[in-house]
Target: Stage 0 sporulation protein A homolog
Amino acid sequence: MYNILICDDEPDIVSALKIYLTGDEYQLFETYNGRQALETVDNNEIHLVLLDIMMPEMDGIQTLSRIREHHNMPVIFLTAKGEDTDKILGLNIGADDYVTKPFNPVELLALSLIHI
Model:
């Protein structure tokens, strides 16, 4: 079983992702800001993180930087920030992939399977 953390401040996005990722092979964790995500990563064996960039309290860039201090699981940014400079920044700080909203859920599922 793979543990996937979904971190996005939009509950509708979290709910949609849960629909596509629900199955016997995944246990899903949901958080709504970077601080919650860090707590979840530190206290659970997480195999993949789907991480939004624009969130309250701690954005996804800061969250990923903190995750990379102690963990090396795959992280896919899932964000509305679609400029090339945003993508390059995200990949340079340690994201394994970068998907812009709106996204194709089937494509995201395929990317998730590649990175697990």
